[in-house]
Write a structure and sequence with these properties.
Length: 296
């Protein structure tokens, strides 16, 4: 392939975004055979299939996913360029695509990303299970993954862990629960209503070890993977929940709860995972540098 045909790339990009050749043809005002034929020519020119059929559905191949991720960035920058040329924008913003583990506290995520936002990076967040997000790193689906545990045993050797920092963990609850359980902590948690993250999270494993070490047997009301949903349960008075001490004030204000006590010996760690050992993206550099100001 001597030169990339951007018209073919544009047709492929639209088929993926619209979900089918039919919808893409309607959007572009072209006949379906035209788009299908042009994509076939594109596949021939790059020497790889972009789609495979699963029943009546077209599913992207691994090569297709890689091409789409690059195309998405190419045409997004093209839109920004068009806007800038029309005088609707100043300097082009730097794009930053972030994969966020669904177990991470959302208030922590915002504080981590705040420096990139302040530097006028255009941030796109994708929330999912860490394993699926890590698969997007080598194909440039995301620039980094924020997680509460490091990537281990990953087949792709181009994935690197960058420790961000750690902080303590505290118990929170509505006023009634705080009044009832703030004394004689942590013994008071024996039999207390507790909201816990699911067992596949790093925080849950730490909490289980802490409960065992203190011979505590709380009444587990619910196990919730999504950290924001867990806190929503807590704000309704369903039980006591744990959250990072680094965002204590924000947790109390946003969810209408009160700090009960800090758990001795329990910490939550945070990692930035990238496809490069040496970080080059200015937004990621700012995230890591600023995190040192408020995380240990």
């Amino acid at each position: 392939m001597e030169r990339l045909n951007y018209q073919h790339l544009f047709y492929f990009w639209n088929v993926v975004r619209e979900g089918s050749v039919t919808r893409a043809s309607e959007k572009l005002g072209l006949a379906q055979p035209t788009i299908s034929g042009q994509i076939a020519v594109f596949e021939s020119s790059i020497g790889a299939q972009l789609f495979r059929k699963e029943g009546r559905r077209l599913v992207m191949t691994e090569t297709g996913r890689t091409v789409f991720n690059y195309a998405d960035e190419i045409f997004s920058i093209g839109r920004e360029l068009g806007s800038a040329l029309k005088g609707h924008a100043g300097e082009l913003s730097l794009r930053l695509s972030v994969g966020v583990s669904n177990a991470l506290p959302k208030l922590i995520v915002y504080r981590l990303l705040e420096p990139a936002l302040a530097a006028h990076n255009q941030v796109t967040c994708h929330e999912d299970k860490t394993e699926r997000l890590l698969a997007e790193l080598p194909v440039h689906g995301v620039d980094l993954v924020l997680s509460d545990w490091p990537a281990t045993g990953v087949a792709d050797a181009r994935i690197y862990n960058h420790p961000i920092g750690e902080c303590g963990v505290a118990a929170f609850g509505v006023s009634e629960l705080q009044q009832r359980y703030r004394k004689n902590f942590p013994r008071c948690l024996d039999g207390a209503p507790l909201l816990l993250p699911t067992s596949n999270t790093a925080l849950r494993r730490s909490l289980d070890r802490w409960l065992d070490a203190n011979s505590l047997f709380p009444k587990i009301i619910a196990e919730v993977e999504d950290s924001a949903l867990l806190k929503t349960f807590g704000s309704a008075g369903a039980g006591i929940f744990m959250a990072p001490t680094a965002v204590r004030i924000q947790v109390e204000e946003q969810y209408g709860v009160k700090h009960i006590a800090t758990l001795n010996g329990v910490t939550e760690r945070f990692y930035a995972i990238t496809a490069q050992r040496k970080i080059k993206h200015a937004g990621v550099v700012r995230i890591l540098e600023r995190a040192r100001d408020w995380l240990v």
